[in-house]
Amino acid sequence: MARAKSELFKDYFTLKPLFYIHLSYSTNRDIEIIRKHRKSGKSYQSIADYLNQKNLKPKRGGTFKPSSVGDICRRLRSA
Fold it and tell me: Is this model's pTM higher than 0.90 or not?
């Protein structure tokens, strides 16, 4: 049974892309990892290296840098 084009487009636009779910989960997990490592006294560089080694990506993609880890830590302190 063939479906009308309008039904196919409706299904296509209402599906949630999986990568959005992955990014939001990954970001929360990254924050917890950063918080744990920072409390243990690790530097921003070592935390960034650890996250990159585990192939975790920041919210906007790319790789973690010490400055991005520092920005996250500052936001956590101000919250």
Answer: no
